[in-house]
């Protein structure tokens, strides 16, 4: 009987471990999906690369702007036809549109990258303020996605995990400004575009991976629904 009891306990623990591992993979997919996933990064980032390549080849600002806008529009149309989520394709198209308008308005190709600098500054400040206030933006964004809503605020370990992960993104945004803003001021278009490329996809993916490494150490808070009488 003791042997049977031990076997049942082992099966129970094995089943629980498999369940936890399944939830682990689900949460990781949700976290990476919240940051756009691979397709979201391509939709929002590739048009900027195309702009840089087109301008270096043609030295024609209008042509380069039009090419990047066309590519961004194609991404949105493909998403629409395949009935995939349009969020990142549309936001990417709007972002490229703003960059294009500013560059055409000033006549300076480097101004195509200026909205990106503004965005990094804004995000950096927002993450810092939210972390200091005890309302980390990552918790507000990922909480509902992971089924926690705001319950994580009642668990100090989980709250600290979101805050610690938030500083990773602060480092990402500020490092981009430290490197790219001087290049912008010096009118180093090629160097600026290259820096944006290197500090775009690779650092974004790294920040997302590090965020998951921090969050997975503290289990997500499961909301217990009150029992009906």
3D structure, described in words:
By secondary structure, this protein is mostly helical. The protein has a domain at 109-229. Helix content is 79%, strand content 0%. The chain has helices spanning 2-34, 37-58, 61-81, 87-106, 114-133, 137-145, 156-185, 189-198, 201-215. Helix 2 packs parallel to helix 4. It is globular. It starts with a helix and ends in a 14-residue tail after the last helix. Mean pLDDT is 81; it is low at 12-22.
Largest sheet: none
Count of DSSP-assigned helices: 9
Radius of gyration: 22 Å
Based on CA inertia axes, which overall geometry fits?
Answer: globular
What is the rounded distance between the termini? 39 Å
Percent of sequence in beta strands: under 5%
Could you tell me the mean pLDDT?
Answer: 81
What distinguishing features does this structure have?
229 residues, mainly alpha, 9 helices, 79% helix
